[in-house]
Design brief:
Largest interface: A-B, 50 and 50 residues
Number of domains of chain A: 2
Number of helices of chain A: 12
Structural class of chain A: mainly alpha
CATH topology of the largest domain in chain A: Tetracycline Repressor, domain 2
Helix content of chain A: over 70%
CATH class of the largest domain in chain A: Mainly Alpha
Largest sheet of chain A: none
Oligomer: homodimer
Distance between the termini of chain A: 41 Å
CATH architecture of the largest domain in chain A: Orthogonal Bundle
Strand content of chain A: under 5%
Order of helices and strands of chain A: HHHHHHHHHHHH
Radius of gyration of chain A: 19 Å
Chain lengths: 217, 217
């Protein structure tokens, strides 16, 4: 995988790391201008004056390029796959555990706090992140829920899950509200999982109402 | 109440608004240096070279001074009182409604988004806000829950409530995640209230475990 920068950089000729830096500069500019969906690997390559194959070589997918450009410390698409890997029924508990592992981790935790502060600080970065998450995380998670519920309802459910998990990490790690900040992960798994189970799989009058009002269903 | 700035400012002599500005400058400095609890009205008055009575005249309580110094667009202590005014049993639904009213309000909403962005952006402002909320909102809310649960458990419950409500407003108003951002408030009240009811009043194995491990109980 082209992600292990630290290893890959060893022995790289100066021209290569310059090309890589130039691609990242171009990516930051184009993602900011056109959004995640609007900016293509091809347009980034053209802006950086390199071959598109070189962008793929360094960053793999457009998601990988986006994460590198924004110094995003995790791979949310892979985490969503991991959360649903044991089936939809086990997803709520795995979701809470995965969130806590990433946000409590000695390396990922501080990087995520710093990343989230940056994302929340300005409207433009909030907009960009929302679009990225919609095109990756929400799309993947909604597809896992399908069969069970209609698309409009799936998105309401995912939004509610996001609201609880985002709030948990903001309260626990960004604001560091006690005793939440010091509670053992296991206590939070026991306490939060029922909420996520209900939002994702349970009876939800609100979500039904939205789905029933949705003209596409 | 000395809070209606717009009205009060009319007819005020220049010397008065200068004293007011000087008090706010001193308050911002001392709250940042000593925290909400550590900075006193007396110390702010001394720093601003005015009589402490003038600080009370302009800002009422220390909470009022804090809100004015940080341009906080709401009075959280009053909102908590309002939420619990009809009793603990009705507090969960009133809490969700009050949050949505404040964050969806055409005037309070944008001001709250901007305020929250500022608070979350830097560690120092996060620390200060956490301390202020602990000394005001959490203290008041915990006292409303008492009789029912022990103090350690009450604080876990309030932390969990904070995590859901904070996440809801961050997802809905700061990141503006759809369809959450456009859902009618009534749908969210129906969907989120059961979560808040459980966190505040329901069976919570996690909270019990914490209370049982707490040496003060």
């Amino acid at each position: 995988m082209p992600d292990e920068e630290g290893l890959r950089r060893v022995g790289r000729r100066p021209g290569q790391s310059e090309a890589r830096a130039e691609i990242l500069r171009a990516a930051r500019m184009l993602f900011a201008e056109r959004g995640f969906v609007g900016a293509s690997i091809r347009s980034v390559a053209a802006e950086a004056r390199v071959d598109p194959a070189l962008v793929h070589h360094y960053f793999g997918t457009k998601e990988g390029l986006f994460r590198a450009a924004l110094e995003m410390p995790i791979q949310p698409e892979e985490l969503v796959e991991e959360i649903f890997a044991a089936g939809v029924e086990r997803a709520p508990e795995r979701l809470v555990r995965t969130f806590l592992r990433v946000w409590d981790g000695p390396e990922t935790g501080p990087a995520m706090v710093s990343f989230l502060r940056t994302v929340l600080a300005r409207q433009e970065s909030s907009d960009l992140m929302r679009e990225f998450l919609g095109a990756t995380v929400v799309r993947i998670a909604a597809s896992k829920l399908l069969g069970g519920v209609d698309p409009a309802e799936a998105e309401v459910r995912i939004g509610l899950v996001a609201s609880q998990m985002l709030g948990l990490v903001v309260a626990r790690r960004v604001l560091a509200v006690e005793p939440l900040a010091s509670l053992p992960a296991e206590v939070l798994v026991a306490t939060i999982t029922p909420t996520i189970t209900r939002y994702l799989l349970g009876e939800l009058p609100g979500a039904h109402a939205v789905a029933e009002n949705d003209p596409s269903t």
